[in-house]
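In full, the data.
>
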Amino acid sequence: MPLPAARPRLADLIGLALSATCLIHCLALPMLLLLAPAIGHWIALPEWTHAAILTLALPAAYGAMRGGWHRHRRSAPAVTAAAGLALLALGLAAHEGWFAAIDPEAGDRLLTTAGALALAAAHVANWRLSHRRPCA
């Protein structure tokens, strides 16, 4: 079986890196801010960070999932990636306060974390399916 094309592999790597960045932003930064409130103002990320990560994640996920599907013909990673991207978009909407019934901070953290985990899982599944060796 031929090795996978470089473009889908690169897209998966970029997608994994963006998912990890998102998780670090959503989990590690708040924990750091809880542990050291005095430095919270120095570490705070700009408001556009959520939109920038989502803007970068969309084409990376599309390229990775499209390339993976051409290789392994499985739709589960793409469906999981789409769900993750939707959760990231909902997290951005919660962060911006577009949901009156949801606390912006809690909604942002919950939805974005779930979205980043789903997107990371999709990239891992896509990677594994794309690089699976046939049984001899």
About this structure: The mean pLDDT is 80. The CA atoms of residues 97 and 104 lie 5 Å apart.
